[in-house]
UniProtKB/TrEMBL annotation:
Residues 796-861 form the HTH luxR-type domain. PANTHER family: TESTICULAR SOLUBLE ADENYLYL CYCLASE (PTHR16305), TRANSCRIPTIONAL ACTIVATOR DOMAIN (PTHR16305:SF35). This is Helix-turn-helix transcriptional regulator. CDD domains: LuxR_C_like (cd06170). Keywords: ATP-binding, Nucleotide-binding. Pfam families: AAA_16, GerE.
Length: 863
């Protein structure tokens, strides 16, 4: 398994080792909190060491009375007889410790060595002296000494602190900090697990041990191993320090000194002990647990009566002074835990509004939900306002079922109260939530109901948004460009009248997007609209437009534009905590990978989105479709269950709107050789497109009918499909090559001459497209094209993975950790071609990363 985000420190340590064994020697200090991966790093370093280097490893233990020279005792069997004799004498009291140290130095002088001393924060005094002795004299021996320690347990009074001060003056001593994993690394570890990656990252703070334990125990809120590790850290604390830790767990995240002092008198000394234990940390301004999961594990052990008392004390103390906006969430938490519903309704709605205003939409949803639990005490209009806030926060944080339920209730309450303006607004928002929930028919009808209600009231701001909603739905469902434009004009007119920049920029964007997909023009106008939304600080509007750019770029099979659009949208969504938009963006990104022929990566990306517990139905449907199509292209089983599951999640119109559903079903049928089903599925898709403008889908379906031996109908077709339907296979293939779609280019060349068929076959073999390869060979036989290779060439058969010679060349360069551009320069090919070869290699080897592929080469060479 890869050591995620540890490559740099491993490179540094490997460099130290290479330099040290040729002299002069060095000392490397590897530090980090418990569970950060220090042991994993030094073990990997030992594995990477030259076989001629002697590896010696010992460790200190958390004993009440540490073993004298414990690490040396561990590695004594691998040391020379002089060291063993001196060590035995020292332990018996017949020999001084410095004689042991001198013997060890002499032993290290005889062999190039890697000496690892783990967990020196638990070392006894003699081991500390050994480190002092070694460190001063290391330049005289061919050895690298690596000492690891937990910096979260080394306070100003710790006995290791003095040693570290001594080492500060030595130039041959090097320090390496192991940082927590980043969010992308945590997401990679979580691939295939049904977890909320953001929540996992939050509770673990990127600690590898905590991440892996949570993933290993998905049914447990707190894994037993984490609970036991926390209990072990707390076992040695005094009663006063344990009380401080318990109170901090109840108080929540960052706790200020005055707040802590308001609950516990004179907590300073006990707090210092708790910090030294490593379970909490302080910067002088606030104290907090190192990991949220650790806090929850401690909180679980605090008696209920104690928790209630502390919450009540804190609530009283905080209400006695000035309350800032940043205090609202904490006050709401303590209010509910203190059993004070009046205080909850005072602070939770305000905390929710503040969170929403600052872009913390998941926090806003949680605070609105908290307020709603006590909302029966409020007047009906206030209850409805809370429901509306909750629905919006749930939508943005991708909790669609909750969003739809709250919005439906709000519609009913507004209607009962006779509040037509807000009823129309809630209908419009309900329509907007229903579409990604896969209920396109209900979404469209609700959108019309919203407009009908609001038009009765005359021109108003809410009506501008209702017209925009019609414009968006017309764009997404690929109605005629003129229809989308007409809705956009109405929205823009009212948006400008009421000064609503969000309406204006989105209406212009969606009108341009409809043109872009249907007519091929409008991309620059869309880009300008996204930039305008971002410049005007309209984060949700910008996210909506940016993710549609990802979608439509993928629909158009434009690989470069898809990659750029996904990168931009993903960064924007992460910056503004827009989980719903982020998940949508990522599924379009997986489709972009599919277009590139990177099927393993596409499937992994789809699986990651699918594993998220809050993925919307339309996103889940697309993820199942990507998985099914990737399997179909690779000739794997269980394709149709995935495609049927996708279809079951959404209305049939969604299959048409997304542009992938029908085409995937048709292609899967073609790959399985079921031409009758190809024609039936394609005509069902074309029937669904009646009176719609979707040349990228209608053109694709017509091409599949032609490839299955049928007569395609006259339908709107995007350029590469139109060229193929007109018999210009060369033009179609060239266009696909320009777009960066090698698989589609190969399919177009199957209609070509002998050289084109050979080119198509080579490309399909490189991609690992087994069913399409079989079809290509059948076409060649039918046309009498010779020679036909019966299976892989000899060079391909000679390696265990079925790689071509060119792919083997690329794989060897992957072992050198080269980029696509660097590989291209070495092999005199284009970077895009290099990328296709890399994708084919990953598919054939059944691995996910370039590093895993390189390791397979390394292991194969060793065999």
């Amino acid at each position: 398994m890869d050591l995620l985000e540890r490559k740099a420190v491993l490179q540094d340590l490997t460099g130290h080792l290479q330099a040290a064994v040729s002299g002069p020697g060095r000392l490397a200090l590897v530090r980090g909190e418990a569970g950060i991966g220090k042991t994993s790093v030094v073990r990997r370093l030992a594995q990477l060491a030259d076989p001629r280097i002697r590896v010696l490893a010992g460790a200190c233990d958390p004993l009440a009375t540490p073993r004298p020279l414990g690490p040396l005792m561990d590695l004594a069997p691998r040391l020379g007889p002089a060291v063993r004799t001196a060590l035995t004498g020292a332990l018996a009291g017949t020999c001084r410790s410095d004689e042991v140290f001198d013997c060890l130095l002499a032993d290290l002088s005889a062999y190039p060595s890697l000496l690892v001393l783990e967990d020196v924060h638990w070392a006894d005094e003699a081991t500390m002296d050994l480190l002092r002795h070694l460190a001063r004299r290391l330049p005289t021996v061919p050895a690298l000494v690596v000492a690891t320690y937990r910096d979260d347990e080394v306070g100003r009074t710790h006995h290791l602190t003095a040693l570290l001060g001594t080492l500060a003056g030595y130039s041959w001593v090097h320090r390496h900090d192991l940082a927590p994993l980043s969010r992308p690394a945590v997401a990679r570890l979580a691939t295939g697990h049904a977890v909320d990656v953001e929540q996992l990252y939050h509770v673990s703070a990127g600690n590898p041990f905590i991440v892996t334990e949570i993933l290993a125990s998905p049914a447990e809120s707190i894994p037993a191993t984490v609970r036991e590790a926390v209990a072990g850290r707390l076992a040695g604390l005094s009663a006063a320090a344990r009380t401080v830790v318990d109170v901090l767990a109840v108080l929540g995240h960052r706790v200020s000194p005055p707040l802590l002092a308001g609950v516990l008198p004179a907590p300073e000394e006990a707090l210092e002990e708790a910090v030294a234990c490593g379970i909490v940390r302080t910067d002088g301004q606030a104290t907090e647990f190192r990991h949220e999961l650790t806090r929850l594990a401690v909180l679980e052990t605090v008696p209920a009566a104690c928790r209630l008392r502390v919450h009540q004390q804190v609530l009283a103390a905080m209400r006695a002074g000035p309350v800032t906006a940043d205090d609202l969430a904490l006050l709401a938490d303590h209010s509910e835990a203190a059993g004070d519903p009046t205080a909850v309704l005072e602070y939770a709605p305000a905390a929710a509004a503040h969170a929403a205003a600052t872009g913390a939409h998941r926090e806003a949803a949680a605070q609105y939900a908290r307020a709603l639990r006590h909302a029966d005490r409020l007047p009906l209009d206030q209850q409805t306002s809370l429901l509306e806030g909750h629905a919006q926060a749930c939508l943005l944080s991708s909790r669609l079922e909750e969003a739809v339920e709250s919005r439906r209730t709000a519609v009913r309450l507004r209607r009962t109260a006779g509040d037509r303006l807000h009823e129309g607004e809630d209908l419009r928002r309900l329509s907007y939530s229903l579409w990604p929930a896969g209920r396109t028919a209900e979404s469209g009808q609700t959108a019309l109901d919203a407009v009908r209600v609001l038009e009765e009231l005359g021109p108003n701001r809410e009506l501008s948004w209702a017209y925009l909603n019609l414009c968006q739905l017309a764009c997404y469902e690929h109605e005629a460009v003129a229809v989308t434009a007409a809705h956009a004009e109405k929205a823009i007119a009212l948006g400008e009248r009421f000064g609503d920049a969000g309406v204006v920029v989105q209406a212009r964007f969606h009108a341009a997007a409809a043109r872009m997909l249907s007519e091929g023009s409008g991309w620059e106008d869309c880009e300008q609209a996204v930039a305008s939304a971002m410049a005007q600080d309209l984060p949700v509007d910008a996210a909506s437009c940016a993710l549609v750019m990802c979608w439509f770029a993928a629909l158009r099979h434009d690989v470069d534009r898809t990659t750029a659009a996904v990168t931009r949208a993903e960064a924007h969504c992460l910056d503004h905590d827009l989980l719903f938009h982020l998940l949508c963006t990522r599924i379009w990104g997986s489709w972009g990978l599919l277009n590139q022929g990177l099927w393993t990566q596409a499937a992994d990306a789809a699986q990651e989105v699918l594993s998220h517990p809050h993925s919307p139905p339309i996103v889940r449907a697309l993820a199942f479709t990507v998985l099914g199509l990737a399997r179909a292209r690779q000739g794997k089983a269980q394709v149709w269950p995935l495609l049927e599951q996708a279809a079951s999640l959404v209305d049939p119109d969604c299959l048409t709107a997304t542009g992938l559903g029908w085409e995937a079903r048709v292609e899967a049928a073609w790959l399985s050789g079921d031409h009758e089903r190809v024609r039936a599925e394609a005509r069902r898709g074309l029937d669904a497109l009646a009176e719609r403008s979707h040349p990228w889908l209608s053109g694709a379906l017509a091409c599949w009918i032609r490839r299955a031996g049928g007569t395609p109908p006259q339908v709107p077709a995007a350029e590469p499909y139109a060229l193929e339907l007109a018999g210009d296979w060369a033009g179609a293939a060239a266009r696909w090559d320009t777009l960066g779609c090698p698989y589609d280019a190969a399919l177009a060349r199957l209609s070509g001459d002998g050289p084109a068929l050979h080119q198509a076959l080579a490309a399909l073999e490189a991609l690992g497209a087994r069913p399409a390869v079989a079809h290509a060979r059948a076409v060649m036989r039918a046309r009498g094209v010779r020679p036909i290779r019966r299976g892989p060439r000899a060079a391909t058969r000679a390696n265990p993975y079925g790689l071509t010679n060119r792919e083997l060349d690329v794989l060897k360069l992957l072992h050198e950790d080269l980029t696509d551009a660097e590989i291209a320069a070495r092999l005199y090919i284009t970077p895009k071609t290099a990328g296709h070869h890399v994708g084919a290699i990953l598919n054939k080897l059944g691995v996910h990363t370039r590093h895993e592929a390189a390791r397979k080469l390394h292991h194969s060479d060793r065999r």
